[in-house]
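[step 3/7] fold_predict: job queued, chain A
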Amino acid sequence: MSSSSSSASSASSHPLLPYGWDEDWQSQFAPYAAQGLVPGRVVRVDRGQCDVVTGDGVVRADTAFVTPHDPLRVVCTGDWVAVDPDGNPRYARVYLPRRTAFVRSTSSKRSEGQILAANVDHAVVALSLAVELDLGRVERFLALAWESGAQPVVVLTKADLVPDADVLAHLVEDVVRSAPGVPVLTVSAREGEGVDALAALLGRGTSVLLGASGAGKSTLANALTGEDVMDVQATRDMDGKGRHTTTTRNLLPLPGGGVLIDTPGLRGVGLWDAGHGVGQVFSEIEELAPRCRFQDCAHEAEPGCAVLAAVDSGELSVRRLDSYRKLVRENQWIVAKSDARSRAGQRKEWKRRQATGRAAARAKRGEW
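[step 4/7] structure written:
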């Protein structure tokens, strides 16, 4: 038997197969296996430690070796890590290169990104039908989802609260228009309606469940797993907001195969270098833009603007164009700010190296 076929056979029978282990992960892990380390997938991260599912079950590991200053390089739920086979404490020594990463901008003034989940195949955006739909927020979520490299899916939860079929169809149509190329499903997790269709769509990959607090994510997670793995709290009647049932990101195995990462309710959904994602969400505007008279057309008041012509003809809604402008401006701002911060960091490092070099030169000359 060749080494490649042996590797494939080994991967297909690996105890971590239900958690997404495959031949490619096995190939990448080979150098660490040679060092006596064992593979595992991060199920949960909490204050410098993480729960890792390995071939021998879930172990607690310290993340001191994978906690750099860059917040986008810290270990997170969904990562594949190389873990010490024993020891007290056990350490996660390194994580494998990520296939995808869902990143948002933090609410801090430092313009930093925050990674929410890694190695995700589907980004499931949950929206509650118990409150008025915020289509701008939908577009914001989808921009980040497309940018992550995952396939977005929109799930309209609590469909049982909209008994009028015509009203429900109208709401779905609004979301479909705001989510080109994205599957849109309606689900009533409490009634069990639409859950099987969603489970079939997610397949055997890794999915991350996103949405605001009160969107019904925990109820949906319970319905998909077939168990009460997540606590559920009632939402407030006045605004439909929840009370952050989920406080950490958790990785949960699904009975039909694959895994689900449940996340806390997201108050803020700031873009983070999501230019490609914004273009995907507003694909109709991106397709119109090359027809504009000027290559640098801002679609504001320029003559010969194909985008504005589409608004005048009713082909494109004013709301969509306004939302597009807003997200483009926000993304340009965050990119410029993060670039400026990066340049400032580089200057600081250069000055430090210069000072070190001067000190070394003085020491060599005997000058103190």
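[step 5/7] annotate
The longest strand covers residues 38-46.
Residues 3-95 form a domain with the OB fold (Dihydrolipoamide Acetyltransferase, E2P) fold (CATH 2.40.50.140).
exit 0
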